[in-house]
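Lecture 7 notes: from sequence to structure.
We start with the chain below.
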Amino acid sequence: MSLTGSALDRAEVCPASCALPAARSTSPYATRGRVLHRFFERLQTVDRDTALADIESEDERLICEAVDLDGLPLDGIATEVTFAFDPATGSARELGRGLERDYSSASATEIVGTIDLVAFDPETRTAYVGDYKTGHRFVTPAAKSRQIHLAAVCAAIVYGAEHVEAEVIRLRDKELPWVSHATFDAFDLGLLGVELAQIRTRVDAVAAALTAGEIPDVSEGEHCRYCPSQHVCPAKVSLALQLGAAAMPLSVSRTVGELTAPVAGEAYHRLVAIEGLCKLVRQQLESLALSRPIPLGDGRYLGPTTSRGRESLDADAVHGRMLVLYGQEIADLAAPSSRAALKKTVATALRHAKEAGLIPTVAPAERALYEDLRLAGGLHRKPARTVPGEYSAAECRTDGCSEQAMSEGGTCDLCALDAEEVARDYSEAAGGGE
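Predicted structure tokens for the same chain:
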């Protein structure tokens, strides 16, 4: 069983979290991480401005713009390097680069992990490892991050480094980058290797107990929030069962009203745990609903729905159009203090235009303005997305069928199966003809 570097900090507190079966997921922050990797790869062959111009998403481009390149050893830097460390032998190796977290080539005894940036200076025998964080969760400083420790130990062994300079860089929207730096010498690296081996041993012990049919001890805390094994964690399962047999709301309300100070702290911790559990259950149900709609009763379903993309206004286009329509004073009133406030300032400017007698009413003028901007390319709508949502089932779209559809404007279960069979028969017939 491979142990990943990103799970080491959690494994140190709760080894069971890395021995229990995991449910993998992704997030917008993981996507941003991949954008950063491509950005650094482009910097090996083009300048910064060109690399930024290649990024289509404005939000992702802003994240990359926040990266301070002055202190990075960009000459010869490697991106998204995957290392494997074997505590049993004290050896390490590079599994590859740009593997997209594919650890299938690692052995069962190795600890594996991917680091965003790696560089090595043979003259000073110094390696550099850097990792970027783009989410809103707490970020462990470089000196204490087990993920950084793994990368540092591996870089020292693989490249023969005597010192390792390490950084964790947190990038958040509309915030200055936060950088945590640490330096490890040969003594530090040797000690870190021993500590990583001890974590590996504890996780292996829990895995062996699970194989023997034992229920593992778990340690609940802040680390539970991002644990991929919550769905099989003994503590979480027990809590879910308690929720299923909970008292009626009136009894619960009366009990909460009788909480005393000594009990309130524990009640709060249980509340946080329940909220985390509810979020996990919602994610699993919505993931299921995207592939197979869930009947909710009374003709309601939880299944795939279409979410319209948000509209994005161009401030310069807005100002130019309002300048033509209403003059300088009204156009200047539409200048926003931030991009998010643009629609609000447009409405304010149009209200002043009404007071000045330039328009009879605000709403029609606002609709006409936005339609002009759409035609002129000053208003863009992001692509629609398929998201889980509730809806009332309509009739199946198949001619002659009056059953309820599985999804909005879709087909019922039986017609969907018929369509699958027809497609399969056609495919088999086509294959047989060849």
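Points to note: The domain at 3-211 is CATH 3.90.320 (Lambda Exonuclease; Chain A). Residues 261-291 form the longest helix (31 residues).
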